[in-house]
Amino acid sequence: MNINFIIRIHKPILQSRPYPQTTLMDSSSYHISSDIKMSLSHDTFYHTEALLEHHLLVWVIAGQTRVVQANGSTTFDAGSTFILSHNQVVRLVNSAVNGVQYKALAVQLSRRNAKEFYSPLNIIPSVLGMDITPLCISSHPLLDGNYRSLVSLYDRRTKLTEEASAEKIFELLQILRETIPQIDNVLGSFETPGRNDLARFMEGHFMFNITIEDFSYFTGRSPSAFNRDFRNTFGMPPQKWLTKKRLAFAHQQLTTVMKKPVDVYREVGFEDLSHFSYAFKKMYGYPPREASHAGR
Fold first, then answer.
1. How far is it, in rounded angstroms, from Cα 238 to Cα 91?
2. What secondary structure letter does DSSP report for 18?
3. What is the average pLDDT value for the chain, to the nearest integer?
4. CA within 20 to 30 Å of 188's CA: 179, 194, 203, 295, which one?
């Protein structure tokens, strides 16, 4: 979905970087509130990076969403609901199916709202080993009613005040607690990213097209500490390492998997094909379209 939430500060739902190519066009959204959004894609598919500071619930109304994470990908068809846990970077590929426009409802379960909801419950969730893979939510009449009440607001182009939005989200949180075992271990977790293994994180996330500041945040470091630790770990600046790593992976995909350049450049974190082709030729001495022959 074309999510537009902002990370690190409580503002409208999550930061995303849609790729500008015409093949990925044309997406629109309607904010029912800063935490509740309806997303639509008018073309065949839409491809965006999403930086999740808060938990995110998504109900796919029509079309299909593929969630790409460092540890793999998961596809959700129309009618599916899932929760993405906070403190991670994902790639969302939203597609029309059989000519039906993509449509999804996204609800950001912010730390602020979750803390207010959980504070009187005196619950200490167990977050050890918490899985970052999407949590699939089974259909339930109470949940379906909550979703449809939000969709009706979109249909009438109604905006919610922040207070009314919080009430809707509290209602949703209560239903989730009543219908899903162990949900507290996900939604009751409020921590920001802690300092983690930089090398392991970068090896798993190099293909995501996010800024150095974003990499710093998700590894639990200030930008200056990130740059220092990165040079100590990899022996070169972050951007140089990212370019080499992405091009090496692209080369492998072109020569071994036999993918086409147009199908590879976005997957490895480049924003446009011309920049990818220029960088690839500079590194390997031939353009990516000739890589399949060079690999034989």
1. 21
2. E
3. 86
4. 203
Residue with tokens 């699939």: 136
If DSSP codes are grouped into helix, strand and coil, which group holds residue 105? strand
- Structural tokens at position 24: 């990925």
Can you spell out the DSSP letters for 79-104?
T-EEEE-SSEEEEEEEE-BTTBPEEE
Relative to beta strand 64-69, strand 72-77 is antiparallel
Q: Tokens 């740059």 sit at which residue?
A: 227
What is the predicted pLDDT for the residue at 7?
35
- CB count, 10 Å around CB of 59? 24
Residue matched to tokens 């020569």? 255
Pair 59, 113: CB distance under 8 Å:
no
Q: Where are the alpha helices (DSSP H) in 195-271?
A: 198-205, 212-218, 223-234, 238-255, 261-264
Percent of the chain at pLDDT above 70? 86
